[in-house]
Amino acid sequence: MGTLELLNPVAHAGLRLDVSHRFNTHFVQIVASEFIPTMQDYPILFTKHPQTGSFYAGALLALEPGEESIRNDGVEPYRPADLIRQGFFLVDGQLAIDPDAPVFTPAGTPLFDANGEPGDALRRVQRATHILHHGLPETDAIIARFLALRLIEPIDIALNFDDGSRLRLDGLYSISLDVLHALSDADALDLFHRGDLQLAYAQTASVQHIRRMAQRRNDRLFVASA
Fold it and tell me: For 89-102, what is the mean pLDDT?
């Protein structure tokens, strides 16, 4: 990451944002309010921050970096806030940019209009940073409650493809339905009243997308070999 600069409509009047580049990221962090929309398109899984070892929730956009997961029905997938805000950061409550981030390209969409006001792309970034800023503490608290009840466990993802290749996804975690269903009535009711139970079921249901992503990869391999 380069040196951050506070976003300024004068200094950054010519800055343009390449929206398409963001799907090169295959795993992005999400917050609790994004679980329901995300589960429609992507697997939701937990992993650990490499620096701190603390858990966070994320959407698996593709099986590997650089591989885009494209839906077969042509419907535009949900874009998590962390994906939208790539290249942007909050510094003391102000929006800052990493000018060296690959999302900024001459062929992209202008951040500001002719009057120096935020354009549509920048307004989407502003909304995304707002979602993350307010959602991360809430999500951390939810994950802490899941951990206290021993609901989060490693998930074994080993995929075999028709061309003989194999792929193993390590370091990922999911809610254990066995542990969830064995909770006491008091603990289950507490999760329900907090809204955590809905999120737990959304996460486990979303894991089915891994199988669909693997099938799409198989389909691409078949076309490439034909």
Answer: 89
Q: How far is Cα 140 from Cα 138, in angstroms, rounded to an integer? A: 5
- % pLDDT > 90, the chain: 61
Query: Rounded to an integer, what distance in angstroms lies between the CA atom of residue 142 and that of residue 124?
Result: 26
Which tens digit of pLDDT belongs to each residue from 117-151? Answer: 999 999 999 999 999 999 999 999 999 999 999 99
| Secondary structure of the chain as H, E, C letters | CCCCEECCCCCCCCCEECHHHHHHCCEEECCHHHHHHHHCCCCEEEEECCCCCCEEEEEECCCCCCCCCCCCCCCCCCCCHHHHCCCEEEECCEEEECCCCCCECCCCEECECCCCCECHHHHHHHHHHHHHHHHHHHHHHHHHHHHHCCCEEECCEEEECCCCCEEEECCCEEECHHHHHCCCHHHHHHHHHHCHHHHHHHHHHHCCHHHHHHHHHHHHHHHHHC
Distance CA 75, CA 54 (A): 34
Confidence of residue 68 (pLDDT cuts 50, 70, 90): low
Q: Say what the pLDDT of residue 164 is.
A: 84
